[in-house]
Specification:
The protein is of the alpha+beta class. The chain contains seven helices and 17 strands. The strands form four sheets. Strands 4-3-5-6-7-8-9-10 form an eight-stranded mixed sheet, with helices on both faces. A five-stranded mixed sheet has the order 12-11-13-17-15, with helices on both faces. β8 (169-174) and β9 (180-185) form a beta hairpin. The structure holds 1,6-di-O-phosphono-beta-D-fructofuranose and magnesium ion (2 copies). Homotetramer.
């Protein structure tokens, strides 16, 4: 077994001391988020032993069936971060409305938005799941926190990250200074820096998309995937590999480790819904991580981090990962839009 590296606590303390834009109260908040993720890792690991598998028999605001672990993870986040003096309020995939935190004390400086358990269709089949979080500045001097205070574009995030509950548990985060990955050492119960300053290679031969939706995609996406499938004998002149885990956390982790492009594009299954993934607690935090690691994140028409949310649970098309590949897809969108305008 290898020796211990730097712990998350040491890393955060150093970040604050070096004045690299990491404020002391944000560092404390990140430590608090990490602590909840640790407890969720243990719950996920216990699986059937603790009776956490299966559906909860309820639906969330989006009409999706909640798994027991969705509910448990949501409550764990609300309970733990509700006790933080740095949090003014929270919003979650599993809550219809915002969850203000104040109760008799001065309001914290941050809003935390999260997907408490991402990939919940994978829980019962023992495949990787995770927690995605986004930290935004809280408004100063408002008497009552409202949903509109959360509706900030991803560029405003002061921290974004995820915990991945896989063969090992990892915490991957950015505060705007690159992307660092930590592995939970189960022997000491600490997150240890194992993947400092990740960089996503600009080129890739690996794509991730749910191919079962192919007939519902727009022409630029049809073209891009068709060309990937044609491989070395097609216009791209190279063979591609495909992956689909159905846990965004696991897909983005793969992209951060070895490159690739991940897409959940617009599709016409439900025309009023501009995509499957949620902007505020799936797309935006992942887009910040990917951009901070040198990759790119787009809806096809604009950078995800520039999308102004108009609803907490807003959906958005997502195309992110290796920079040159994302550029290839967006160029097809731009071209189609230009052709339609002429
Ligand atoms: O059903 P599909 O198309 O495979 O959807 C998979 C996508 O849905 C999600 O699981 C949605 O997340 P939740 O489990 O938090 O609802 C993403 O992680 C993933 O990319
Ligand atoms: Mg999710
Ligand atoms: Mg979820």
């Amino acid at each position: 077994m290898r020796n211990q590296g730097k712990s998350l606590t040491q890393f955060l303390n150093e970040g604050v001391r070096q004045g690299l834009g990491l404020e002391a109260d944000l560092a404390v908040l990140i430590g608090e988020i990490a602590a909840v993720c640790k407890s969720l890792s243990y719950a996920t690991r216990a699986g059937g032993l603790e009776g956490v598998l299966g559906t909860a028999g309820t639906e969330n605001v989006q009409g999706e069936t909640q798994q027991k672990l969705d509910v448990f993870a949501n409550e764990a986040m609300l309970d733990s971060l509700g006790a933080s003096e740095h949090v003014a309020g929270m919003a979650s995939e599993e809550l219809t409305d915002i969850h203000p935190v104040s109760a008799g004390r001065s309001r914290g400086r941050y809003l935390v938005v999260f997907d408490p358990l991402d990939g919940s269709s994978n829980i019962d089949v023992n495949v990787s799941v995770g927690t995605i979080f986004s930290v935004l500045p809280a408004p100063a001097g408002v008497s009552e926190l409202a949903a509109q205070h959360f509706l900030q574009p991803g560029r405003e995030q002061v921290c974004a990250g995820y915990a991945l509950y896989g063969p090992s548990t990892m915490l991957v985060l950015t505060t705007g200074n690159g992307v660092d990955g930590f592995t939970l050492d189960p022997r000491v119960g600490e997150f240890i820096l194992t993947h400092p300053q990740r960089r996503i290679p600009a080129d890739t031969r690996e794509f991730a998309i749910n191919m079962s939706n192919q007939r519902f995609w727009e022409p630029p996406m049809q073209r891009y995937i068709q060309e990937c499938l044609e491989g070395s004998s097609g216009p791209r002149g190279k063979d591609f590999n495909m992956r689909w885990v159905a846990s965004m956390v696991a897909e983005i982790h793969r992209v951060l480790i070895r490159g690739g492009i991940f897409m959940y594009p617009y599709d016409s299954r439900e025309p009023k819904r501009p995509g499957r993934l949620r902007l505020m607690y799936e797309a935006s935090p992942m887009a910040m991580l990917v951009e901070q690691a040198g990759g790119s994140a787009s809806t096809g028409y604009k950078q995800i981090l520039d999308v102004q949310p108009d609803d907490l649970h807003q959906r958005v098309p997502v195309i992110l990962g290796s920079r040159n590949e994302v550029t290839q897809v967006t160029s097809y969108h731009t071209q189609t839009a230009a052709d339609a305008a002429n």
